Amino acid sequence: MGKPVEHPTALILTWKEYNVMILANENFLKLQASYLFSDIAKRVSAFQKNHPDIAVIKLGIGDVTSPLPPACVEAFHTAIDEMASASTFRGYGPEQGYEFLREAIAAGDYAPRKVTIAPEEIFVSDGAKCDTGNFQELFAQDIRIAIPDPVYPVYVDTNVMAGRTGPFEDGAFTGLVYLPCTPENQYLPALPDEEVDLIYLCFPNNPTGAVADRACLQEWVDYAREHKALILFDAAYEAFIRDPDIPRTIYEIEGAREVAVEFRSFSKTAGFTGTRCAYTVVPKECQIYTSHGEPIDLHALWNRRHCTKFNGVSYPVQRAAEAIYSPGGQQQVKTLINAYMENAARIRTVVTEAGYTCVGGEHSPYIWVHTGTDSWSFFDRLLKEAGVVTTPGVGFGSCGEGHIRISAFNSRENVECAMDRIRPILG
Ligand code: MLT
Question: Where does ligand 1 bind, in terms of residues with CB under 6 Å?
């Protein structure tokens, strides 16, 4: 507390009248003390400090462990060399991404699924975390938001920071419409009973690994069209889908171009968690509205925001991402994903043989295990007794209680070792 400020005319004003303090965005105070994965990292490093002899195996945060595909490394090197020469050097690139990458994405990720996405509808960025977190800036304060529970914490936390929720009470933020995903509904959210304006969906799902079929996605798109709502569709894990009948993109669903924005990432697909490159698709048909009901072009709005706050992904990174779409890159990415999916199958087998039910791991790198017990205690037990890091389900929302998430992102050797260690604990 400072001292009262003396007015030049000797008139003494109270501290309150001279309230010149810098005020905080108190919405941040509603958040849990720390981000889930930072919290886990702290617990793990405390454990490691006390048990330096135990080699901890991390199957917690979905961070890839295999090196970049050789095609990407080669493209990266070539691009760095270009940056080293005056004749090929590049400064600022287009904020939305270089044409070469946007064209490769449209042709490589969408055309094979018979979906037309124009390169101009693609915004290249440094991560789907940032994009899913930032996109809410385009909406009014008082929109009604539907969020699955459990859910990737970024969707909730960024809306809390923006002041669109009340306080955190009984494991939930007031003001949000939670869509429970439980064993009873096969972890697939049902349409909300009340009207909502913004809907977050993620398939293959993080954290549950559940996938949505065409009929399920069609229901959501129909709902959004009927209610003039918008779907933010996180497809960061689409590359892990094995079944060709499961949609890889929301735009395989009729009408989705009018009501859905899609987020994609090279992080898990091609080992880019440390390299950073992702993209967001905003179709030209997508509209949101003013309070008077006038339509606003969402693509133009996101473009405005993106150009103001983002200066583009580096040229070498975009060249490395482009190489994913070369024939060699495609083959190498397939090999990477297959290896993680073999891990996922192994984890599923061990977990189910131990008598637990689980979802995920078939079209996703995450296995969502129903333990039926306190998830932080289960997490602690696996860490302390087996030296294996998982993610406690409740960290993703109150419906995640009684579950843990096991990630398949690690080497085969480490996954085998982790399974050998946890098998006796699972009983
Ligand atoms: C996760 O483990 O849920 C993800 O790795 C987090 C992320 O992609 O930001």
Answer: 61-63, 129, 152, 206
